[in-house]
Every structure is written in structure tokens, then in C-alpha cells.
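In the current project phase, we have settled on a layout for protein records. A sample record is reproduced below.
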Amino acid sequence: MMALSFLISACSPKHKNEIDKLNSISYAYHYLNLDSARSIAYRAYMMSLDEGYDDGKAEALNNMAFVSIARMRYANASKLLLEASSADNQVELLISDILNMRLCQRQSHNKDFYVYQERALERMSRIQEEIDLLTARQKFRFRYAKSEFHIVAATYYYYVGQHRPFIAELKKINPDDIAKDTAQYLSYLYNMGAGDAIEGTSHQTIIQKEFEYLLLCYAMAGDRYPFWRANSLQSLSEHLLDVNDRKFLIKNNLQSIKYLNVQDVSYDLLPVNLAKRSLKIFRSFGDVYQISGAYRTLASCYWSIGDNRSSILCLENALSRNSAIFKAPDLVASIREQLSVVYSAIDDKPNSDRNRNIYLDLQEQTRQDRQLEARAEKLKSSVVWLNIMIIGVVIMIVFLVGLLAIFDKMRQSKLAATSLDSLLSPLREWKAKNDVCVEELKEKYEEIQENYAISQLHLLDSKKQNIEQRAKISLVNSVLPFIDRMIHEVERLSKNEESDDVKELRYQYISELLDTINRYNNILTQWIQLRQGRLSLHIESFSLQTLFDIINKGQMKFNTKEVTLNVKPTNAVVKADKTLTLFMINTLADNSCKFTSQGGKVSIEAIEGNDYVEISISDTGCGMTHDQVEHVFDHKPIKDEKRTGLQYKSHGFGLMNCKGIIEKYKKVSQLFSVCTISAESELGKGSRFSFRLPKGVVRFVLALFISSFAVEVHANLSKIPEDPYPITHPYLLKANVYADKCYESNKRGTYEQTLRYADSARYLINQYYYTIYPRGKDVMTATETTVIPAEIKWYNEKLKTSYAIILDIRNESAVAALALHHWDIYRYNNNVYTQLFRLRSSDNTLRTYVKRMQISENNKMVAIILLVLLLLAILPAYYLLYYRHFLYYRFYLERVNLMNDILLSEDSDKKKLLRIKQLWQKHFNPSHNRIGQSATLVHVVKQIEKALKESIQLDDKYRTNLELASDEVHRVEFENAKLHVSNSILDNCLSSLKHETMYYPSRIMQLIDVDKRNLSGIRELVDYYKELYVLLSAQAMRQIHAITMRCQPVSIYGATVLGDPDMLHYLFDILKKAGKQKSLHVSVAKTDRDYVVYRVLWSDVLLTEEQCRNLFTPMTENIQLMICRQIIRDIGEVTNSRGCGIQAHLDNHNVVIDIVITKAKDKDGKF
């Protein structure tokens, strides 16, 4: 068809060249003189009628339609374009469609615009495919049509506020392709300079580039193209309106400005001058639309210099000079909006409100879903054919369904014996077994994690013991210098070279040394004894029934007293120390037996809670008073009243130990936060003691295995509908309240209050935005801060919020700012309101609707073809729809049964999956994936493969986690074992040292007191004492060197130092307890290249200067503080930093402790 139309159009009438020449001249006058353009086009049109030259006639009609659109004679333009649409020339038909697009753009007929746009795109595509068949003239017209299409589309998108499509359309124009068509090139330059099409990094860069485009357009237009000369002057005037922009452009384009300023007016009045010149040219040219636009620009210029009366006059002229202007509602809306601003500037609020209300009404009228006329017409024209096609399709569907029903009945009778449930039964059986295995892996992993946590606790305790042992060894080593001094004194006495007085002084010094050694030995003895009696926990999960069975075996003591013991069976599992739990139950049961009279009863039971198990021991004994219950766990004697008839006396040690065990649990881990112990009693009626322990890991493997067979397999899952916009969110509800307050405030005339309410509403909406995007940067503002407002970005990115509230806020803010003459706030809020209103009112189904209307034209032939194909398909239908699939199904069914056998085999899951994939891929034809029963089998196979994949992933995950967790547990246990061995050896060494050497100082003192002259005996004893002391201490030192502290960077109290994290926290914990501080006051006093100095303040601690000096020495009041010195000493040794240390001094009667620790380095080795 296209080729034929081109061939027909190529036939040459007698005056073809003359007609083409007239049309070319008319085209050239488009932007020079509208009267001439129409007159010449009319001559071409009449000659074409006489000659029967349809191509020339269509071109002439398009030229005349262009003039009618410029003069806003839209009805006449529509009539001309309708006549042009009867031509066979596809290029001119394309141009007619584009002119219809321009006509719709001017009248805000948005739906019709898309109709013609889609039609134009289809024509362009078809013409491009056969472009080689076009004549030279047609190719020229086609180039014009393509550029004009993008320019008209860009103009439309610009006026409806769709910035991205606007820029996209302009980018599709290649300036080099249209350079020979000056009019189109000028149109391109103007659109680039006037329509925010430049994308730049800064505002000044953008306006400079736009200025250059407009200046080039002005220069090239000259006198030949007054339309573009006037347009460029008008846009240049708008660019120079802003004072800052004007100064910038004048500074950087002084010669160009002088070129524009032909009348040499003041630069402040240059925008007015350019607007007047533009208006003069447009009035001469005769484009009604552009004349009104020029008046609007001139009004803006007058308003910018404060001449509001002249501004109003210009705007009224724009509306009144030609009533045709009301056919362009977008332009009228912009004029009304500007009138509301100017009237507000002169405090004429009634007129300002009237024009703003008209402006808002026009926004409503120009919504994209208001123009339904074209849609109704097209629906009328297609309804008949649609009905026919629907009837034909319904008949075809009924016939096809009937045929399928017959074939399906035949197939079902053959396959009745095979059900989907039976095929899935092996899968359910395998899943049940697999779930058991997975649960076992989970439980094993949880058990390892528990062991790891407990091992960590044991390791921490071992590290604390080890650092304590090292501190003791340091104390031991500090004795050796005293022994050496004593040996020296004995040697001097043995020489007998000094006077008796000097000798006496030496004997006295030896006595002092021996006293010091004895004092150190006493400290060591006291320290070793402190370790005795410390509680060690072995945490595990165990059944309480095992302990209850042990308690039951001890009924003898209850029977002896003729007291009944009732132990209720339980299935509860707890996580605790099994031995200590038995101790607590025994203690509380013995206590109940002790205070229960003959014939009484003691009951033991376990009660399960959500995350704990409560073990209760109750009796029918004598009971206690309220005061006794309050202090029952305190360490104080409790004597029974004589009136009870009982003669027992209790010091409460057992109950106190039970409470201590519970407190110890609570310090171990957050898991034991449920641990409590309590007592309830009523005098004369009995008592009830109870304590709580956390639940252990309950193993439901058997139950899970049994219940797994009850699981149903569902092939289809219903889709969850999308949530509606969360307009019930608290932030949005509060914002809505403030939006209502904005409206009420404007009604009252309290405009400043309106803006404050609007600020509150914006803040709440922004807070809601942050709940979705915590690090988002696109937030609503009162004035312009970005090129694209935040709410426009939100709408384009489909952020779910209440845009109705945003519109209310922006509109009321614009009204308030208008009344207060806050022009920047008004412009920004009004622009945002307009853009968002148009976006919200747009019908997103426009393009889909248009395409559907065009597709409906082809559905007639499709329906006929389908009916014919249906008739031809009846004969092969039997084979294609029934027998072929039956054979395939039987074959695939055998493969599925074989897969089920593989699934239940003893192979690994990976091997099973590989075999099943190979079996299925080898025999399965993908084309049968969605056909009949084969689709069901495919679904079964996919379920099997999915289940195996999930099982493999879970198995790999848990086994990997198990390996990593086991390795970590082994590492911790190895380190703990190493420390435990070292601590045990050190315990033995210290015990040996204490027992073997502690009596020698006394024996030496005794020798001196009995016979001072027996220096040889004293010397022999001192030497032996030293040898023995060195031997035993050296054994301990060898063990000390075998264990070293692991230092790493540790961030603590605002600085990063080198050390063991556990030991550093232990150090500060000791300082907190030793200073009896509720919270430890630690600060970084100093930091240099190598060290960090921490300063610890003990408030309300009274020490002397001497006590401060001795605080971390063997002479300290608290020997635990020697551990602090040892921790710092070990850090210094490991990091080879001699500056590490800890000391105390007084500052304003407060004890200040300075701790010097090695500073950590970064990755580059820098401090």
C-alpha cells in the first residue's frame, strides 16, 4: 500500500512543479508573514483541485491549517486537516497528524494529542522502512515532519510539566539534519534556549548556555523570520528579569548585550525594552497566541520593576484583545495566575482571590482526563465490529470447550487409576525423614553454640585465674631481693671487721628484712586462701526427672520423721548446673522436712512457663512470720518459736547458698535472666520455696517425624494484594490536621500562622519519608533548593504517601505567601502545586487506550482467521489434543515413578538430584511443560527438584556452620585447657613454695635471737633458704613463660590501645569494685605517639598519700589491686613498651589512678 501510494504520488500533473513551488513559498512564509503564507497556500490548493494533484492539495491544506492554528482559528484548522486526511500521500498525512498534535496541545486536548502522536509514530515507522521509494521533495518534507514531530511533542511535554520526556524529545533532534531548513533550525535553537532543556552542574552554567542558544536564534532570524526573532527577544527578556541573572549575563556577555540593546536603554529597563520589541513584532505577525504570551512577559517585566498598574494593563490586554485566546486554557491559566500575584502586590485581595480561583478552576478543566470526545467517537465507530468479534469468539470458545471436554473425559477414564496424591506421597515421606535430619542438625548446632558460650565463660575464668597466678609469682619474685640483702648482711657480719654498734644495726636490718618477707608470705597465703570456695558452673541441658528420681530414693529421712514426701513426675528440661540444681532441691527439701511436724507433707513439683521452669518445694510445716519471710535468705540466725514445739536452730547457710547460686547464674549470661528464688509462707500453715531455671533444648524429633506425614502439598499460593497508601500512619494523620489548620488560618486571614502550620505539616511528611528512606535527601522545603521538587521525585518514583495533603499544603502556602508578598515562597509553592496537580490528574492509561483503539481495527480479520483455523483444526484435533498427550503422559509417568524410587534410595541428596535431572532432561520435551496431565507431572518433578535443592542448601549451611562452630569451640577449649594446666601447675608451685619456705624466716630469726655469734649456722640456713626459694620459684617462672598474653587493638573508654580485651575489662572491673564506685569515672588524660593515659577517679574514697603510693604494691590495702599491676605489666612485656604502668595519687582529696597503656597502631603501622 505504501509503495503504491508513493508511485501514484509520483505521477506528474501538468502544473505540478508550479504547485510545488507555491507550497514551498508558503512554507517559507510560515514564520515570516501569515497572510502571505495562507494566500499562497490557497492558490496552490485551487490549482491542485483543477489539476487533480492530491499531493499538492494535501500540502496546501497543511500550510493553511498551520496559519489557522497560529491565528487560533481552531475549528477552521480542524476542518482543513480533516480534508487533508483523505490524501494518499503518507508524508503529508504524517504532517497532518503532527499539526493535529499541535492543535491539541494549544487547546489542552490531551487525550486526542496521544491519539495523533501514536498515529504519527506508526506512519513514521512505515515511511522509514520504504524511504528509498520517496521523491526528493517527499524526503525533504519527511525530514521536516520528523523534526516538527519532536518539537511539537517537546512543547506539549513542557506545558504539561513532564520535564524528562521534554528533554528526551529535543535530544532526538539532530541539529545537523535540519541545518538546511532554517525555520526548523531556529525552532530547535529557541526550544533549547527557552524551555529548561539544558542540563548543567550550576544555574549560571545553564543560563549562559540558554542565552547563547537564544542569541544565536535572534541573530539568525534577522528580518526574514520575525516569528523567531520575536520569540527569542521574549525569552531573552525573561532571562534578564532576575537581577542576579541579569548581572551575570551582562558581565559575561557585554558585547552581546550591547548588540541586543539597540535603543541603548538602561540595563535595568532592558527586559522591558526586549519584551516591548517582541510584542510589536508579534502584533505585526498576527499570531494571537504569541501576542497574548508577549503581553504576559511584558507584564512580568513591569512587575519586576514595581510598575504594578502597567503590569495589570498588559495582562488585561492579553485576555481582552482577542476572545480566541480563551480557546487556549493553559495560557489563560498562566495569565490569571499572574494577575492574582499583581493584584496581591497592590493589596487588592478580592481581585487577587478571584483570579486565583479562576486559575485553579482552569487547572481542573485542563486535566488530562477531561477531554473524552475523541474517545467516545472512536468507541462508537468500533462497537459494532467489537460485538461481532465477541460473538464469533464466544462461539469458537464454546465449540473448543466442548471438544476439549469430550477429549478430556476420554483421557480421564484412562488415567483414573493414577492420582497426584499418590505421586507426591514418596515426596512427603522423604520430606518427613529429611525434616528429622535437619532438626537434628539444628539441635546439634544449638548445642555447640551453648558449649561455645560456656567454654568462653570458662576461658574467661581461667584467664582471670592465670593473671592472678602471675601476680602471685610477681609477689614471690619480689622476695628474692630481700633474701639477697640478708645474705649480704650476713657476709659482712662474718668478716667481723665492724664495731659492735654497726653489727647490732646489721642484725636489726636483717630482722626488718625477715619481717618484710614474713609480711609478703602472709599476703601470699591470704591470697591463695581467697581462691578457695569459689563457685564453678557446668551448664548443660538435662531432664529434671533424673534429679527427682534421686530425691525419691532419699525417702528414708522423711519416713523416719513420719513426714510424707510427694515428688510429682515431670517432662521438663532445664539448662543449668546439674549438681548445683540437685544441691538446691536437697537443701530446700531438707529445710521443709526439718520444720514439718509428724504426719505432715512435703511436695516437690516442676511448673513450666514460656521460657523457664519453676521448681517448687512446699510443706505443711510451722510456717513463718512476714518478717521472717522477708529475711529468710539473709545471713542471720533464725530461731523457731517455742510454741511450735520444735527445737531446731538454723543459721540460714543453706538458703543463703541457694540464693548465691541463683545470683551466680544471673551473672553468667542473659539466658539466665529468668532465674529467681522466692519464699511464701503463712504462720501455722506451712511454706513454699521455689526457684526458676531457663528451659533447656527440647528435642521433638519423634513428634516432628510423626506429624510430618500430615503435611499437605499445595501447588498454588494465592497472591497477597498490595497494601494501600499508608494514609493511616501517625505522621500523615498529624500532617492532615495541620493542612486543615492551614485552610482555616487562611480563612481567618492569619497568613503568617498558615506558613507555620505548613512548616509543621512538611516536617511531619518528611519524617514519614525518613521512615521509608532513613538516609534519604529528597525532602520537602518551603522554598526552592533543588531543580526538581522532592514531592515530584516522590511521585515519579511511586513513593506511597498522601499527595492530597501535599497539594493542600502547597496551595494554602501559595495563598498565604501571595497575601504576605513573599514572592519566592509563592512562586515555588504554586509551581509545585501546579506540577503535582497535573501529574496526579494525568491518566496513565492514555497510551494503552490509544494502542488498543488502533489494534481494534485489525481484530476483524483476526476473528475471521481464527474461525477458519478452528474449522481446519477439527480433523487433527483428535491426535493433537488427545492421543499424542496420552502417550507422552504414560511415558513421563513411568519416569516420575522411577524418580520417586531414586528419592527414597540411600544415595546422598546431591547424587539423587543429579540422577533425577539427568533422567528428566534426557526424556522430557519442554514443549509439553504446560499441556494437560504432563503439566501436572512437570509440577511434581519441579517439587522434587526444589525439595532436594533446599535440602542440599540447608545441609551445606548447617554442616558448614557446625564445622566452624566446632572449630571455634575446640579452639576455646584448647586455650582453656592450656590455661587450666598452667593454673594447676602454678597452684602446685605456689603451694609448694608456701609450705616449703614460709617457716624459714622464723627459723632464721630464732637463730639470731638465740645465738648471734653462730654466723656460720645463720649463713648456712640463709643460703639454703635462698637455694630452695630460687628452685621453687624458677619452676613457677618456667610455667609463666609458657603462657603469654595475646594483645590486640581494643577500643575502650574513648581510646584504642593494645591489650587483651577480657583482661582490660577485668582491670577496670577490679578498680570499680575496689573503689566501691556505682559507676567508674574514666577519662583519657593524655595520649601521645606511643601511649594512652587513662585517668580513673575514685570519689568518696579516703586514702593517705602513703596508701596511694602503696595501692598497687604488696603493701596495698586490697591485694586484688596487685592483679591490675600485673595486667599492665604483662601488656608492657608483650608489646615491649617500658612506659606502661599504673599508679595512684591524691587530687583535691580524691584518689586519682593513672594507667599508661600502649597505643594501638593502624594498618599502616602508624599510631
Observations:
- Residues 179-286 form one domain.
- The radius of gyration is 49 Å.
- The longest strand covers residues 686-694.
